[in-house]
């Protein structure tokens, strides 16, 4: 039976709701329009969770729907009709009522006033179209709208923590609470925060491991094939590797449901171990993990 997972927070307490897909439809039908706005909002949140995560992973339109020869913005494609991936809470009418704490309030890129600053600070350079809208550096994605906090580049930090050597080498991964896959700890860089500070903060928040006194090796600053990305909003990450002599205690918290050390002799070995445990490796993090392995095996 497929399940939908919804995570809300109340103060410092995490609330984890598990609900069957049929129950969502029944709840919406029973509530109708006669209930209180608060309950109706909860039902709509559950419905959104079903639509976005109802099959254990987000539904996505990938660049596979865009022919390779048409991905470049330099190639004209008048018939291009990308799918709008903007969730309900980021639509203009919703933003006029409430701006989520994780998002900016600009309904469209035309409402952003600091594009020169954003372009100068970008981890990966990008251009803007004739309207002034930012364009994904890798070309057309098959998606439009915004399903991320900011228009244009959303800077992230991904700390890859590796312990031990040889056959004893392990990598620290978390189970993400949004799509229930095994992934590198990490997240978005907060406004005014540096990437090195975000690396330490995200690792501490999600695993309880504090490596503030350790110096990581920066592996790269690259685009991430994030399922939320669109033509006008995407993720670019600073990935860094921390090397420890042995594993340390890791306890899942914040956006993580679980935290574990996995064998890390190769990417194939890591994926086999994760699959054998009945779990799935986050596809977008495979290139980052391979980059870490390449660094270790030099």
Report on the structure:
- Helix content is 24%, strand content 25%.
- It has helices spanning 21-31, 37-53, 92-95, 115-121, 195-207, 267-276, 286-296; strands at residues 3-10, 13-20, 83-84, 127-128, 134-135, 143-144, 152-163, 170-176, 182-183, 187-188, 217-224, 233-244, 256-263.
- The N and C termini lie far apart (45 Å).
- The relative contact order is 0.13.
- It has 3 domains: 3-53, no CATH class; 63-144, no CATH class; 152-296, Nucleoside Triphosphate Pyrophosphohydrolase (Alpha-Beta Complex).
- By secondary structure, the protein is an alpha+beta fold.
- The protein has 7 helices and 13 strands.
- Strands 7, 8, 9, 10, 11, 12 and 13 form a 7-stranded mixed β-sheet that branches.
Structural class, please? alpha+beta
> Which topology of the largest domain does CATH recognise?
Nucleoside Triphosphate Pyrophosphohydrolase
Number of strands: 13
- Report the CATH architecture of the largest domain: Alpha-Beta Complex
Notable features of this structure?
Nucleoside Triphosphate Pyrophosphohydrolase, 298 residues, 3 domains, globular, 7 helices, seven-stranded mixed β-sheet, alpha+beta
Task: Summarize the model shown.
By secondary structure, the protein is of the alpha+beta class. It has seven helices and 13 strands.
SSE arrangement:
Elements: E1 3-10, E2 13-20, H1 21-31, H2 37-53, E3 83-84, H3 92-95, H4 115-121, E4 127-128, E5 134-135, E6 143-144, E7 152-163, E8 170-176, E9 182-183, E10 187-188, H5 195-207, E11 217-224, E12 233-244, E13 256-263, H6 267-276, H7 286-296
Parallel strand pairs: 3-6, 7-12
Antiparallel strand pairs: 1-2, 4-5, 7-8, 7-10, 8-9, 8-13, 11-12
